[in-house]
Input
Amino acid sequence: MRWLVVGGLAALVALIVLWRLTRDLTAPPPPSEPVAAFESTNPQAPSLPSSRDPSQPTRLRNPQIEPPVVRIPQPAPLDRPSSSEVATEIPDAPPDVGKAMRSTLRRQVDSIDPYISECVARANNRGAKISGRAALTVLITLDKEKGKVRVTEVGIEPIDTNIEDVPLLNCLRDAGKRMQLEDLPDGVTSIQATHEVSLDGGSITNHTLSAMEMLPAGAAPP
Output
């Protein structure tokens, strides 16, 4: 009988142990500890209240950086001559026109040879046997009102003249008034010519055309 009681107690203890083991296996696992969220090592500073006036334009944070300025290039002014330059710029006469006019003036210089000889004869009659050279200028101009070409001015070129006899010089100068031209080239309103007279002891050694210049409209004689 005693062995039955001991066996029953042992069986009861075994059942209790088995019950506890099965309860531990079926029980839910303990809750895990919550993991803290990742915290930034560079926390953002709290924003401060803005004191900017909304009506004022927004300024850049860096005052050294200027906004780019777009510049539109302006076209360069055209290099055009002024109206005064255009008015006075006149092309030179063609070479054939100048050559023809020079030949005409040579004939006119030859045509006044008798008057030049008369001037020298008068000086010789006064007893002045003159030697030297006289440069005489003649300005021939177109008279627009009358439509004729005539000599408007005669003179003496002092640089190339070494004759000092005044009566003889005046006579030689006035002889140039005898020159005559029928017409002037197109675009030319006046011609200045220079003829030279060379004397040796009261004798004429040379009388020739030495210079000629055609002056366009609006140009003043030199």
